[in-house]
Design goal:
Length: 505
């Protein structure tokens, strides 16, 4: 009787559908590659890995080239989410994988972005580094394994007997003995208050199971962890763990309208940042913005859950009239968004230091916020200043100095812009052979900053930077010593003066 019930479920179930994807040629960045086809070679390695795994329906390279050529589209290069959607629909795929191969200081770095065609959003980003082309192939295959884990398998519990359950996923779906699945039931439906659109369905975890045997279309798994005795039941959903780890914590993302709104979690001390990791429990969310009515909401975060919350604010006409006459955009709209960008850039720097490729995704998030702000005020000096900070975070110094020039055009006494401009030329000069020219521009920027600031500690810091530029980029130790001495004379007890004394003595 048990065997019959399983047979009925499996017969009624549609065959497992593989995820259909396309891999574009990777773009080459830098010089000194052993072959100009390195981007194509990397994409071929990835295609082979996906085909061997068996869980993906990969577009054949010849067909991919033919379709793109017919539509006069370029296959090579990093595409953004919008162009990926257009290419994906044309190819009939759900996922586009694109990226770059970079070479610098004899290091080869491969970065891949996985783009959801339907949602026009980045699912994940992965990357690897190697000091030789020969060792790169193995690393790319390992990267493919990480990408595969970004696509967790979803299925259902179709039978339970004691501590053994049967799920409707088997060898055809790529299930193997030893794989672990989270089991959960669906909870409340979250809908948009105005449109009625279903934004999310809460998932309540009931346990964890580990696969012990597989057949073509089903697999048997042993219950490792069950929240309450007998809570794992027929009909509940299962999700392969992959990269996910059993944890008592969850992650919270809050999207707001307007996008620059200030987001706070009122019942904890740490400030909110996108994707903040929190212990499972209840949290009181507040979203506020000038000209809008503040909105508060309690939410419950489950263990291992990634919660995405959308809160739209209603306009408050009285507040809007009070703020409409403000000349400084940053007073009411930008300030909250800029604080958020600072947090994002801080997180991006930490991820970059750790070698985590997600730092690029965080910079993309910062640019999304800036783009929205720019539509509202194209004459805001701080927007261009933060565009420059974002460019600096990825060592794109040429873009940074252009943005800063715009910021200074709107306010020629913008001290922070002069300082960042000097820093950009200084850092740029360290990477270029023609460092003297960039060093002189850095000195000009710092000198302009000194003219516009009144704080003695800040002036001392700028003199110290000018000394460093002379020493490192212009090889003028005499001038460097003079500026370091000015640092000490201007603010003897400042941090800059202490650093200058070490160089002088």
């Amino acid at each position: 009787m048990v065997g019959f019930s399983i047979l009925v479920v499996c017969t009624a179930r549609a065959d497992f559908k593989k995820t259909r994807l396309a891999v574009l040629d990777f773009q080459l960045q830098g010089q000194g590659f052993e072959t100009s086809d390195m981007g194509k070679i990397v994409s071929e390695w990835l295609i082979t890995a996906f085909v061997q795994n068996g869980r993906f329906d990969v577009i054949e390279r010849g067909l991919l080239n033919k379709i793109l050529e017919e539509q006069k589209l370029v296959m090579t290069g990093i595409v953004d989410e919008n162009s990926a959607t257009a290419i994906g629909k044309l190819l009939g795929v759900k996922v586009i994988i694109t990226g770059s191969v970079m070479k610098y200081q004899n290091i080869l770095e491969v970065n891949a972005r996985i783009i959801d065609v339907e949602k026009a959003s980045i699912i994940a980003a992965e990357g690897v580094k190697s000091d030789s082309a020969g060792g790169l192939e193995t690393l790319v295959y390992k990267m493919a394994e990480q990408i595969i884990k970004d696509f967790p398998l979803e299925g259902y519990v179709v039978h339970r007997a004691g501590d053994i359950i049967t799920i409707d996923l088997g060898k055809k779906a790529g299930v193997k003995a030893g794989m672990r699945f989270i089991v959960f039931k669906e909870g409340d439906v979250v809908k948009h208050p105005k449109t009625g659109e279903v934004l999310d369905v809460k998932k309540i975890q009931t346990g964890v199971v580990k696969v012990v045997s597989t057949r073509n279309t089903i697999a048997e798994a042993k219950i490792e962890n069950e929240k309450n005795l007998g809570e794992i039941r027929y009909g509940q959903m299962v999700l392969s763990i992959g990269k996910l780890k059993m944890t008592s914590k969850g992650r919270l993302y809050v999207n707001s309208d307007p996008g620059y709104a200030r987001i706070r979690i009122l019942n904890i001390k740490p400030p909110y940042s996108p994707g903040i990791e929190l212990e499972a429990g209840s949290y009181h969310i507040e979203v506020s913005a000038a000209g809008y009515r503040t909105r508060k909401k309690w939410i419950v975060l489950n263990p291992g859950e990634t919660r995405k919350l959308y809160l739209a604010l209603d306009k408050d006409e009285q507040k809007s009239q009070q703020t409409r006459g403000s000349d400084d955009f940053s007073v009411f709209a930008g300030r909250l968004a800029f604080d958020n960008i600072d947090l994002i850039l801080k997180e991006a720097r930490q991820l970059k230091i750790q070698g985590d490729p997600r730092w690029k995704t965080r910079l993309y998030d910062a640019r999304v916020i800036l783009k929205r702000l720019l539509k509202q005020n194209r004459r805001s000096k701080k927007i261009y200043y933060y565009y420059a900070k974002t460019s600096m975070a990825e060592n794109n110094f040429s873009h940074a100095v252009k943005y800063l020039a715009k910021a200074i055009r709107f306010d020629d006494k913008f001290v922070d812009a002069y300082i960042l401009q000097g820093d950009a030329y200084y850092a740029w000069g360290k990477l270029k052979r023609k460092s003297a020219k960039l060093g002189k521009r850095a000195l000009q920027a710092y000198a302009s900053g000194i003219k516009t600031c009144v704080d003695s500690d800040l002036k001392a810091m700028l003199y110290f930077k000018m000394g460093n530029v002379n020493a490192e980029l212009l090889n003028n130790l005499n001038a460097a010593g003079q500026y370091w001495q000015k640092t000490v004379d201007t603010a003897p007890h400042s941090k800059a003066a202490l650093s200058a004394k070490k160089k002088l003595y």
